[in-house]
């Protein structure tokens, strides 16, 4: 079996983890293994700490080392996603080395469920941005451009380097702009 990865390496999008998790789901279905979601999640956890997240494939709040899930009431259905993958490689090791574990200023799960998309920009932060943005100013400029263009929320994905913006309606960018736009 050959699995071809279309998501760029180093994008911070969890492409490899998603591929591994969906392969487990495919094998479970194809060979009628009758594994439960919990069993597939445990197996996925052996591939990587964020792999079990992709077994459920629904909005969940993740805690612990990526192994504790609770379903949340959060949907991006009907929104538009702009994804920018600059030709910048962010070392995952450097990204993790640049953050200091801390207690969040607010309850993230509560914010996701109660504030709605428009209220998240001021309270939901990617901890990697502070250190990664110091090294790569172009990423700051991309995020700011998305917000200026009307994104309701914009952030770096994971440890970088992709930046995404979520829009209420289809954004109107010039044809010269190399953004990928998806409706959710």
UniProtKB/TrEMBL annotation:
<keyword id="KW-0067">ATP-binding</keyword>
<dbReference type="InterPro" id="IPR006204">
    <property type="entry name" value="GHMP_kinase_N_dom"/>
</dbReference>
<protein>
    <submittedName>
        <fullName>4-diphosphocytidyl-2-C-methyl-D-erythritol kinase</fullName>
        <ecNumber>2.7.1.148</ecNumber>
    </submittedName>
</protein>
<dbReference type="GO" id="GO:0050515">
    <property type="term" value="F:4-(cytidine 5'-diphospho)-2-C-methyl-D-erythritol kinase activity"/>
</dbReference>
<dbReference type="Pfam" id="PF08544">
    <property type="entry name" value="GHMP_kinases_C"/>
</dbReference>
<dbReference type="GO" id="GO:0005524">
    <property type="term" value="F:ATP binding"/>
</dbReference>
<keyword id="KW-0418">Kinase</keyword>
<feature type="domain" description="GHMP kinase C-terminal">
    <location>
        <begin position="122"/>
        <end position="172"/>
    </location>
</feature>
<feature type="domain" description="GHMP kinase N-terminal">
    <location>
        <begin position="1"/>
        <end position="55"/>
    </location>
</feature>
<keyword id="KW-0808">Transferase</keyword>
<dbReference type="Pfam" id="PF00288">
    <property type="entry name" value="GHMP_kinases_N"/>
</dbReference>
<dbReference type="InterPro" id="IPR014721">
    <property type="entry name" value="Ribsml_uS5_D2-typ_fold_subgr"/>
</dbReference>
<dbReference type="InterPro" id="IPR020568">
    <property type="entry name" value="Ribosomal_Su5_D2-typ_SF"/>
</dbReference>
<dbReference type="InterPro" id="IPR036554">
    <property type="entry name" value="GHMP_kinase_C_sf"/>
</dbReference>
<keyword id="KW-0547">Nucleotide-binding</keyword>
<dbReference type="InterPro" id="IPR013750">
    <property type="entry name" value="GHMP_kinase_C_dom"/>
</dbReference>
